[in-house]
Amino acid sequence: MEISHAKQVINIDTALTERIDELLSHYPADKRKSALLPILHEVQDAHDNWLSIELQDKVAEIIGIKPVEVYEVVSFYTMYNQKPIGKYMFEFCRTSCCAIRGAENLMDYTCDKLGIKEGETTADGMFTVVGVECLGACGYAPMLQLGDYYRENLTKEKVDALIDECKNGQVNLH
User: Fold this and answer.
1) 2 falls in which pLDDT band (50, 70, 90)?
2) Taking Cα atoms as reference points, which of 58, 142, 62 lies closest to residue 107?
């Protein structure tokens, strides 16, 4: 498990507490752990899109489970970030169809263009590039996910345009 040493301000405000309570209400009292994934999404969204160990501990406390049960989930799923990430995270699909159609080369190209390695964030905090498992858009390979949206049939030119759109604040993440 990758552990970040970055400090994170934990802010479980009233709105987030109400949302967590609403999610918990969908499950019987003895099955509160079933709400873990959606709660982690909400908490991560409210905390600059990452989950420190301390924040994971707080989630465990809220749900009433052991911290290790949260760590297991956060370290298993790539949708949860264990360290600060850039405002724009390019998640390149790296499984069969995308790999055959050049996703790895495009990921390398993007990293070179941004001056980072896979898994790193640019010094200005704008971009993070990671490889992920299948995103389920095999017919549109190579592709990446950026926020809630897919970018499909990628080329170097499309990656260049996407980076420029991000730099110019023209990309909607949600």
Assistant:
1) very low
2) 142
Q: What is the CA radius of gyration of the chain?
A: 17
Integer Cα distance of 3 and 6 in angstroms: 9
DSSP 52-72: -HHHHHHHHHHHTS-HHHHHH
Integer distance in angstroms from the first to the last C-alpha of the chain? Answer: 28
pTM for the predicted model, two decimal places: 0.81
Minimal CA–CA distance to 23: which of 34, 13, 9? Answer: 34
Q: What sections of the chain are H helices per DSSP?
A: 14-24, 36-45, 53-63, 67-76, 96-100, 103-114, 156-167
What is the residue whose two structure tokens read 């299948």? 134
